[in-house]
Automatic annotation (TrEMBL), chains A, B:
This is Hydroxymethylglutaryl-CoA lyase. Belongs to the HMG-CoA lyase family. It comes from Streptomyces coryli. Keywords: Lyase, Metal-binding. GO terms for biological process: ketone body biosynthetic process; L-leucine catabolic process. SUPFAM superfamilies: Aldolase. CDD domains: DRE_TIM_HMGL. The lineage of its organism: Bacteria, Bacillati, Actinomycetota, Actinomycetes, Kitasatosporales. Residues 18-285 form the Pyruvate carboxyltransferase domain. The keyword Metal-binding applies.
Amino acid sequence: MTDLPMRFPAPGGLPARVRIHEVGPRDGLQNEKQAIPTDVKAEFIHRLAAAGLTTIEATSFVRPEWVPQLADAEELYPQLTGIDADLPVLVPNTRGLERAEALGATRIAVFASATETFAQRNLNRSVDESLKMFAPVVERAKQARLHVRGYLSMCFGDPWEGAVPVHQVVQVAKALAGMGCDELSLGDTIGVATPGHVQALLSALNEAGVPTPALAVHFHDTYGQALSNTLAALQHGVATVDASAGGLGGCPYAKSATGNLATEDLVWMLHGLGIETGVDLDQLVATSTWMAAHLGRPSPSRTVTALSHKES
Amino acid sequence: MTDLPMRFPAPGGLPARVRIHEVGPRDGLQNEKQAIPTDVKAEFIHRLAAAGLTTIEATSFVRPEWVPQLADAEELYPQLTGIDADLPVLVPNTRGLERAEALGATRIAVFASATETFAQRNLNRSVDESLKMFAPVVERAKQARLHVRGYLSMCFGDPWEGAVPVHQVVQVAKALAGMGCDELSLGDTIGVATPGHVQALLSALNEAGVPTPALAVHFHDTYGQALSNTLAALQHGVATVDASAGGLGGCPYAKSATGNLATEDLVWMLHGLGIETGVDLDQLVATSTWMAAHLGRPSPSRTVTALSHKES
């Protein structure tokens, strides 16, 4: 039987190659209730890199009491030596940046919100105050020649505020770009976006001077929309897509079992479209199946489910 | 909080309205192992119509020993009197057509295969032989002024033959159109298609003289691709989309828990794109939640999961 998916490039032009920003070890595992041993996390990241992922967000240097699931960042990071992939880490403030730098991190990310309510709930300050907190972090990181990603959450809908106006997202995005972020990841944190909304936001950002190559998209599959929204972003020219191996991670604010776009479902579509990712899908599925066994529950990824059943 | 999804029409033009061909009662329930009482099926169809669905495939007039789940077609159909929706029924042959006509059905569907192996396994004859079986059925149905849909399964991949050549699908599609089918539903029975493949097939069909208004798409979510493939079809101009309430139904050949595109996930995207469907999403979710309770397991639809958790 022929290897699937079959390659059928889409008419009209899509990026020839997409960089997948794998968020499973950080965004996925930080939402796990159970404690994952540090050596399991390290093996997970090693296996993801061996499967061909070139950007793997490894952990977060936040205060351990805020995110106890990632409190082992200092123990984990040295175990990643020798991995042939970029390993960005999340830092919330200057103290986090210092910890990351001390371990030799070359890529960091800050996590901003497009809405006031989520900024208050997640960062305990207003959007403006959070930007003031990030500015010296980004400035110092750029001086140290680190690559800086700015996450922008709640870009489409907010569980408390409802629809998020496009111009409000653009304003915060411009502020993050203006302080020196190399890349912005637009998050649909509660998974409510649809393709026209995605393209409207991307166009508005372009018009405001934020070019498409500086943009990544980060979709959640709460309403099953993540992959069609990704297709819409690809059609706009976006070539960096966030995803989580096996669909690890949920959004605690959306009250749903489903979370991040599964990397495997994304890879299936990209490879079918003839878009290169460098990922070995079988090896990735094996990794997610292995991780699911550690977590004691099946992966929500459709592709993992289909391909792991096929093997058995 | 604002009602979600928010409406953001896509740039470039999509159909203003999409007709959803609801297949849950037939394609969904025929794959259920347990027997569903006839009055539950009837209530299901009444509730789907009350939720605004205008085309609901009700049952199948096959030999009861082939599909015991739908052996109650003669009991069920009269219970659907007064429903304000089209209620097509599947018929495999002239005998099935006679049974459907006797009950007053005005829309029928035949079920063909694009591949030899599936034709042999599902219909116990070659593709050519199956077309010869359908020809008199379609001819007689057209004489009786019935609307005829031709299903074409395995249009993208086949579990035994692998990738299915586009020209092979076009050949069978032309034969079905030539014998008088009003509409063709292109099935990705094992869920392997990706958006470029969808558009390649649609273009090839147009070039062969089958116009887009005569085409419907029928995607399975085995690899999570159903909704992005639907978006690609909409971008090509397709305005009839098959879906199954709550994602009911699986493909027994794909060894996966997931089956048809869930109507709710589809409606979320369409309404977000500003495309009219006439469907009341909350009422539809309530119907699928009610049906899931009858079946004793949760719906695989992401939207049903998210919205039913929200209520509780």
